[in-house]
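Q: My collaborator sent me two sequences in one message, no labels, and asked for predicted structures for both. Can we handle them in order? The first one she listed is below.
A: Yes, handling them in the order given. First sequence, followed by its structure tokens:
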Amino acid sequence: MDDSTLKSLRVCTKKNEVLQLVPVFSKSVKEYTLCVGSDTDGVVVSASPSEGDAFVQVQKSAANGVVGIQEGASDIIVKCDAADGSSSKTVIHVFRPSANDATLKALQFSCGMIEPDFHRLETAYVLRIAPTDSDVTVTATPTNATAKVVSHGTGPNGSVKITANETEVSFEVTSADGTLKQAYSLLLRKDKVGSRLVLNKDCKINASHTCSICCCTLYLPRSKPATSKCTHEFCLTCFELFGAALKDSNKLEMDCFLCVDACGKVLARTDAEKDAVLSTMKYECPFRCTVSAIEAPLVLGHVMECVAGKPVDECGECCEIGAGIHKDACVFQCELCAKRVPAWTKSLHESLTCLSKRKPVDAVLLAESAGWQQAFVDKKSLPATVEGCVKAVEPLLKQYLTSLAAAWKSSEDTFGANPSPPDVSCLAQMAKLYATAISINIETKKVKGGVLDESLHIELGLVMEEMESCEAMFPAVETRAVKVKANDNDEASDSFMSDEVDGLLMGLGVAKSASDASKLKAMEEEFRRLTAAGLSDQAAEVQGLHQWKVKKVNAGSNVTSTDKNNSLQQEQRGSGRLAKALSKYEDVVSLNPGNSDAQYNSGRVNLILGHFEKAQLCFEHAIAARPGFKNAIFLFAVAVLFQSKPASFLAVFSVNVIERQLLQFQTNLWLEIKETKQEHDLKLCDTIMHLASPLLRASFLALSRGYMFSGKISKASKPVLDLLYILPAAMRKLSKKSHAWRSMAATLCEARQFLVQLWTLCAPVDPMLTLLDKRNCESLLRMVLSVAEGQGGGEWFRVVENVCRVLLYRAPVDTVALTMLGKAQLDLVDNDARFLGDEKKLQDAIECFEAALGVGEGVKLVEKQEWFVRMKEEVGCWELAAKSKDVKVAAGLKAGAKKTAGVPVKAVPVAKAAPPAKSVPPPSKPVPSKPAPPVKATQKATAVDKYGTTAAPKTQGTTKPTSKKSSTVTSKNTTPKASNVSLSKTKSLSTTLQKITTLPMYETSIGLARAISRKVGFIEDQSGPKDARIPALVESITTHYNHAIKSKPGAHDAYIELGALLERKVSIRAAADIYAAFPFRDFRSGGGTDPGQDDLYLYTELGRCFMKEKRYKEVLLVDCLVAEGRAMGMPCLGKYVEALDAAGESKLLMQVYAGVSKKPVDHPDLQAFFKSRYWI
């Protein structure tokens, strides 16, 4: 076929001046952009075809070849027709500015990266420049060459002298005819770099000089409107990380997510006054040189020249060479095992890792290959030898590392907004090659003898781990795959049926964690009940759902495992590819316990999973086999310090190891400023010294713990603050959708939490902690809750739980912390697979809620919980270490200190729990009751006696059984008073935490009611619905729901959940009374809006109950039917209309029809309809 492409394309003015096309001409490009001056009314387009016999035509060109150009945007089309009839079109998009055009054509700069990408209609930009840049040249080119550009803040030729971290430049463009003006702003900004700087002792700062997120001295503090009530402060990095997208820096403002109800506002622009104050501060050199008072603008220059900040030459033995001279003896020869050991690890070797002191571990036969490994084997299309498979891996690894480096660069350049994922197909092919090589190696050994190649198993494990890390770091780009319509319909049908089954089971009080047999049994009983009651239509619906559930159970899909042993095993081994990688490392360890690489990798994965003792043992084996294994020694130290009671000599050794490693890491952070950008030439699983690695982040916290164990409490906060300083900047370069970002956010919260924990012992010797403490406690919970709300998942429920534990340990009678902890524990029982059906976790939640309400033994039970005892023991170890160093501990700050006279406490709720799904009932029939929240399993009672009777709230210091009369909303039980428990001498955190939320009692009461409901569900699952303990528990649940309703009468959740409970356990009439007690607003009067979703659901349930009980005279029945009719249409009320018509309730029906149509009853159209139905 002949070629219809162009060989050349050239555009000139009438004066034969060549105009530049964008992009540069290429025969494969079919669209170009061309900007001309306002005085250019025509251009000459010259084009030649690739084939000599092709014909080229420039459309709309005159006889002399000139194409007229109008003001504004227009297109020039060049068509090329080949001899065989094929053709192609090339389009040139031309823009000719008008005389009143006041826009810029381009912004050019000598260095830096501009955000967002330039467009002539975008007027606000940020130019990010390197910290070492002292001047930048900025050139603004107008779209109309005759327009006038005036710059503000630039010198001759557009040069800008940078003397601060943020410099503003603006350009004013005046159109050629002088009628229009347009201003462009450009902010030249230096991001914070390096490691945290410590203020000179003579500098005094207050809480307003520290960031509410990272707790560090503010860098480019954000300003606030004059009317803002926000008391929080944000540095630039944290503001961009959690709050803002890049827009007009002079106008952008965000709601402060740390303020109650987002009442505070924060602006994107810098607070110049506060920044000027902070720029006068003096800092110490981060590398401990003799200079101790460096002015802020001079810090960077000093660090770049500081001798102590230069990297040391590396020695494979000791890493202690400076200026070419060994500082200490490089190695020593162990007389017992004859190994050469780095001198600085001599104490560890002699006491622990010397092979002569370790028990030999016998090798075992390699187990059969796992099924997942066999699935990768492909002997047909892959090389037939081990050597061939290994050789085929090399180009794939090179290709993957190249794509990984590109992914890192795109993620950093776009700040995580548009990262290009690495080529994971290379990893998949590498896994096939290694699995095939292993299979060939095993078969060869069986036939010809020889040895098994251990490295193949390790490499396969590393590939699987790399795939897991790659997925966590760079989430896959979502694409809309083309699916068969039938498959889409099947998926939609399954989703609908699954929702219907879940709703039915929730209504029946069956927990999500219940076994499939229990769920099917409950559905069968409901079918028999409905059949006996004559409700054939509803019984048929339940029968259909039962049949679908049976089909899914038999197919083995959507089955939730409730076997606790399986859950714990999965938790211990990790999930997905990480578990597969660990299994390969363990295979090699079992085959050859002396393989240092296998031991190291096994220890590394166990450390990630939180198995510190097992990780320590693996690292000991690795170090024993290879004494100079730097990474193994470093991670060994981390594993040691994360244990609750490390040996004292190991704690001291581990502190020294991590100090050395982190000092080198922080040195590299400063060196990267003047050197070329760091190249990512390692696989993700091999990259330890990068903040994306959870192991490096853990080392900062481990060092802080090590300082506490070794009695150096004055240093304990430094590693935590160092981590808080550098972590937000690293998070800014990752996608918020990635698991790595979520993991780093969890570490950020964990570090803040650890500062609260340190304050108890360290405040007397660390003034910085005292300065940060109030703000830290006040904002920590709000920050964790805000991030958790956006992220969700069991991982974040655990973060919330850990934060609440620390806050509660600080003040054991703080009702806010008690309520928050109870809610977090209940969320874990509901949503985390590790705690599904966990009786102990549920009982802990019940005890926390009861302590907040002053029920039963209250705080005493919480202080006996396992986590509280463990934390108390750990703090006791810290205190003992501090006393050995003669450090005075703050009196009265420890948990369990003597308490003062009783002070009433209030329960303060937290973020509103997710209400049950508010699906609207299907048309033409009443629907089953709206389900209450899922009922989870537990065995222990909530503050119960030996018969399972729940203790009632204390009133005037006594405890009385709950009366059965309290089972309805008309109960005369009063809201439970606070327990007669006194506060500790320290100020309770309630005074600060109450800023989180202000509604008293509600969250605590409804949380306790929900927790006991889940207990009831477990009892029913184990012993059946007739268990003797259930009536008392149901009575207690009712009481707590009533307390929640009294505390917050307008909250829907309590009415919905209590109504569903009473319908199942008491009667429909009792449920209707609860629904009717809700304070509905009038929506039928003139100007009233239709009910919202929550109100509509209550109206629907109340109407269903009234109709089922034939309570046709109830005043609210009309409102219920009108609300449902307006939302769903009159056809959905068909059965109700038939029933009311048969009962002779014509007046009620006329009111309903009039209300739905929003017309008066006497409207002519309605009157005709009413007559046709014989209602009048």
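Q: And the one she listed second?
A: Here it is, processed independently of the first:
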Amino acid sequence: MSTSINIAQLVTGGKSRTSKGQSLTGMLFVVSKESSLARGTIELVDFTSEQMALCVVDQFIPTYHRVIVSIKEWNYIFDAASGYRYLEFKMDSVFYSNDTLSVIRRHIKSESKTYSKQPHVFYIPSPTLSCAEKRNVALAGQIHSISPLIVVPKVTSYFFLQLTRDRSCVTIRFSGKGCEYYYHYFLIGSYHVFQNLSIIKKGERTIFSFGKESCTCTITATQYADITIQPNSLEYPLTVTSVEKPRQFTGCITRIIDTLFGIYELESKLLVCLFHYMNYSPQKPYRIGTRITISHFHTTKVQSLTTSHLLSLWEMKNDCPVLVSCQMTRIEIQSFPTHSQVLGEDMQTVSFKLLVYLDVIKRQLDFSSLLQQLEIYAALESKFSKSMDLDLNGLFKTFNIIRKHLLENDENQAYSIDFDSFFSHDDEDSGCQVFTRNSDKNVIQLISYPSLENVKSSLEDNLAPYQLDLIGENHFNEQHKVLIKSAELNQEHQLLGRIDMLDDGRLVLVDNTCNILINTTENIELGAIYLCKKVRLFSEDLSYLNSLTFEKTKLDCRYISCNGHDLYLVYRPHQQIFQIEQDISSVGISRFICDGLTTVVNHPVVVAHVIDKLPLEFSVLGNDIECRLVVMLYSLTDSTEHNISIDSGKRILVTNKRNRSLKFNRQLQLNKWYVILDLIQLGSNENDKTFFLSEKCHKIYPIVITPRRINYAIQLTAIVSDDAVSVFKPPIPKPVYNVSQLAVYSLSPDESYQERADFYYTEPMDVQGIIISKRLLKGSAQSHSTCDDKAADMYDKFGIGTGKYERKLQIQLRQLNRLDTLVIYLDSKSQHYPLGLIPGARVTFRNLLRKHSYKGFYNFYCTNRSTSTIQVESTHAPKEDHVDLDNVPKIALSQLQKELVEGKEPEDTIFKAYCFVNLIVSLRFKWLCKTCESVIRNSNCFNLCQEIEHVFTASAYVKISDNTETAHANVDGEKLVFGLLDLTQAQADELKHFVFEHGELYYQGKPGSTYSNLPEKIDNPLKDLCSKAISRGHIWIYAKRQFKKEESGLSLLKLPKEKKNREVFDVEKAKLKVIVIKPDFAANIACQLLLEGLDDFINNNNTA
């Protein structure tokens, strides 16, 4: 015999349980008034103990409101951490008093008797439904859809029910007192008859209304087929819409994914999102094993171009199918599980998700916008939720910034639950507000925020040679060129990462998966989180061949590069700031004071002004990586104190790897002011003016100097004194020259130049331009295997140097819009290998030394020194290499020959000449092994290197003439040589393949004869190409004089004569040699010159 318990006994013990033969007694109650519970909520109440339990039921019968019943089979679900406390039961398990029939069976039997006593004449939904009377209308039909229960606070509640026959549909509004009792009564697809309905106008629609006098009765399909149809009348036409059969799916919940947002898995194969189902409550979630029928839903697939954090969190594959609920959705429970197990979430551990949930609820987002924002949440949760200094408020603030930045239009994607949205659901124009129909093939593409590990792997798989041929590039020693590969991130992805610094001082982008070196053009903040667009991975091959073992030492520099305007700050670590409202420019400062300083900062503090900053480098003496800063330190005390904390004056601040203080380098910027906490002297081998900063011991806060008060800043006051040690003056910006300006400046007199033994200019200069080539040179000192091993170890561990002893970088810098170039040599053996110095990058070099080249006074180059710095402005190469060629001076070759004969040293200027090719003296093509620099033939190099990186070299030596004089021109690089030979791309590729098979290809042309290094049985393809090039006619060439100081205007040539044992000397003019920078093969050159000649003729006549 079963026992009975009440609610008070049920909740005793505080745990979930099932009926197990015990019946549960209580009063069924539907909330219909303002209370803490939503209207329409079903409760089981024990008025004796004044306790209640929320109920999840399959259906509710209106007549059983406030009726005491006994429930035979039930599940009580309780979870304190999740806040769950509710009952599950079916109405077929509910009994009234000692009745042997359940209340639902008793109700069906009673309804059948009631219907049999009524007249069976009803109106039915039809395309032209019109009633003869406005009140007391009888209507029959099949339930098509039920709207959400719409609550007007402190007024009333109402909902709409759509009744259909065939495809015709009419609407009934339930409103007023007690309408909540009917809300859980109707089932989709069931048949009902209604009595005493009235006809009302709702906006532009005419619908039925269920009022106090109205009643309804459930009938069977057979009874519905036998009704008598009331003929239509023209008096009161109804609004009739055409609908399709409701879409339904019945399945079992096999996995709970997210109860807060209503995400469940059905039948282990698809997802269902119940977030927009108005009857869903996270306080009463469905459990595993619950079988449901969902009606009126949308289907879609969720895709991501890369790994989605949201789908990973849900443990779903890409392209997963989803059933989406909306304002038309109705869920009917077919059965409950027989257990009471519940998988809940501790609300205290999901605080971040709860904030996101409340935000989404507030803004009423549609399904697509919901998924995009959940992807942001999942990315932040996965990447940064375990960061020590990123608290709940920081995460949510970051979430909102990303949302506003990337999903700006989501504010317009809010949905509304009302009469219009319910009726417009099936309209082709408006459609469902929850599920937008403009998505391609019903697929929602997530904006992904892939893990850094996946991005890195994908970019590495797509690395391709970075080929950029810019005008003016020097193609000598192609085998020394740094081989660069690159891959660009798909712009549909959003790379989300945090800026951190390695112990050795290099910047990295990090998330929860890995870190990677980053180069950027902006002064980014440590600890900040950025969205990165247009990210490109660069791989620079720094490998070399061991001179003793002939084994390849593999070195590779990989980093991502992102320009400043492609970085979007989404999180900045909170930091206290100080403010100075005074104008302290050009005044003497003795110290600083602060009102109530001891109450704000209970530590000794000083004010520091950074006046110089040296680059980070490796100290051999200290066996450490360090950076030194020159600062002016000032005492900072409370306004009530008179003792100073430190004597004002210049000090040296040292940051190093040992103390993990290199991160302060990013914070301490030149000419900025700071407050430093707990500055203490740690160095024992330094003088008393040197301080070593430590991450553990010191903290640094910025000072903002502005007359406008910042409310959250701590105010400082500068004490001005005429006897102050120093006077602060705003820094005078140092000029940054372009290449041509630097050339002019370098030719100006500098008395100190001749006093230096190494012939360097004493004044360092700043120059900016675009990099057009980058090479690695061996250097002047002899490299030893031991030194190379140490250099490679330094590079692997700390990124110091190039990985090989005494190896230097040679950078060819060109003016952005002109052909002027400058060679810069960088020796970075004690500094980090510079990132971002790739062809096409716009760069500013500071504090470079200038030195004249051995080639002449007008030729000079630059080198770096310990204080030199490099600022990469952009690594994005220009789409088109625009160079101003119109203003290049035209010079006749005869003028250059005259200067050569007279021994006049020419200026190192670029000129253009209109000439033609007389003779191609020589052509040379070859493939070289990048590792051992030997010639490649039949895919192998001389040393049989296993991993062959090969480079193609092309050079030509031609004789040109402009009809005033002849000159010999060097043409280097495949682009210039192939252009000279007028080869198509297909011909060029075929020639390169031919050279790859046969090794070096050499051709020499002489008047009346030619020479080739190929066997006679192999046809040389160059002879015809050279003949074609000579016959092309006139071209413009842009070139430079090739000049050596030891050359004289005349040279003696020793020639053998007819007479035996006798030699005579003939005088020969020195050869005029030029280096071709760019040829112009325009077909309309002759027409251009003709037009210029006509203009000159007309101008001369007008002048006369």
